Amino acid sequence: MTLKGKRILLGLTGGIAAFKAAELVRSLAKAGCDVRVVMSEAACRFITPVTMQALSGQRVWTDLWDPGVPDNMAHIELSRDRDLIVVAPASADFMAKVARGLADDLLSTLVLARRCALLLAPAMNVEMWNNPATRRNVKRLRGDGVAIAGPAAGDQACGETGMGRMLEAREIVAEVEAFFQPRLLAGRHVLITAGPTVEPIDPVRAITNASSGKMGYAVARAANEAGASVTLVSGPTALEAPAGVRRISVRTAREMFDAVVKSVNDADVFVSVAAVADYRVVNPSAQKIKRGARKAMTLELTENPDILAHVAGLKKPPFCVGFAAESEKLAAHARQKRRRKGIPLLAANLAQEALGADDNALTLFDDAGEHSLGRSSKLEQARKLVAHIAAMLAKKKKR
Ligand code: CTP
């Protein structure tokens, strides 16, 4: 419920993605935000102020010269009590204006006169997005501390395909939520492992597992939102690294071990989410193994290092958090695993429910007992886990 009572100024500029702003204002209002809508003249050509007024439950502002404003100070007053300005869709033209500090209508003037943070959700044709002028503006905006959410790639209203689609309303809401996350891990370095490992048999075959990396990447994102500097050591996944997170890509368990050992010295927290292969092939073949005349064959396996147990056993270990994906007897296995690895906190889930899915239901095990996090998106679960870690760290400090 991070959004309850938050005061948001939602700006719309011209673009066909303006229709998504209707869903956005509805979702924000439903989450308990107070949403004041300001529309540019071009935005009013794509969606009417009446629609936005009905969905926000407040009058909509469009005019810098509105005679209804007693002191003519709408360009300042409208943003003064706001916690955040979100502009969605943000057109290429609007981004160029903000990058240069221009103020020639109500919304651009409000943005220039703002005291609060600004989040832009770009929406434009792929060539506009790729144009060197837009690239320059995006860079300059980021340098000025403006947050930019998206755009995504895909089919565009103009019939072309590529980067430039505005994020969906729910994705923008997630960005707004991220903005309001408490900075519980500010100043901390969090090291995370994620994804599967891949152990070669020969140049084209390998032993791996079905881990998608989604949970580990969600923990990386949540830790970053909480103000930590984050290093993510990741096995092969199809996922993009969350913004602001340093990713080190590895394949095998031993590569993961080496990367963790290199980064662990200045880590305050180590969250081991990766599904690490416990065994690897003793002598992977340099050449592709041919079918030959054999009816059967045996692979000789040897044990991989246990990365988490190694880190937990260091002289000055970071605060260690383990994960356990079990197929049965969740609590019994989780308790035993936590003891065996010598770690203060372990998050457990049922493998068949969590693997590859977008949501999860973690149970946390620590000295105080068992804490169920309920079922929600992996990002929500990760945020709760981060809050639990921060609370345990704070307690540890007091002692
Ligand atoms: N882990 C690790 N290195 C390994 C194996 C596991 O760091 N070689 C970590 C995982 O990232 C996870 C925790 O240890 O945080 C538990 O992993 P899991 O595979 O469930 O445990 P195992 O020790 O392999 O036990 P088992 O396979 O018997 O369930």
What does this protein structure show overall?
The protein folds into two domains: 7-179, Flavin prenyltransferase-like (Rossmann fold), CATH 3.40.50.1950; 189-398, 3-Layer(aba) Sandwich (Rossmann fold), CATH 3.40.50. β16 (319-326), α13 and β17 (345-350) form a beta-alpha-beta unit. It contains 15 helices and 21 strands. By secondary structure, it is an alpha/beta fold. α1 (18-30) crosses α9, α4 crosses α6 and α5 (92-100) packs across α8. The model has no long low-confidence stretch (mean pLDDT 94). Bound molecules: cytidine-5'-triphosphate. Residues 193, 253, 272, 274, 276, 278, 304, 306-308, 322-325, 337 line the site of cytidine-5'-triphosphate (CTP). Cytidine-5'-triphosphate (CTP) binds next to α12 and β16.
Question: What are the main properties of this structure?
Answer:
five-stranded parallel sheet; binds cytidine-5'-triphosphate; 399 residues; Rossmann fold; eight-stranded mixed sheet; 2 domains; 24% strand; alpha/beta
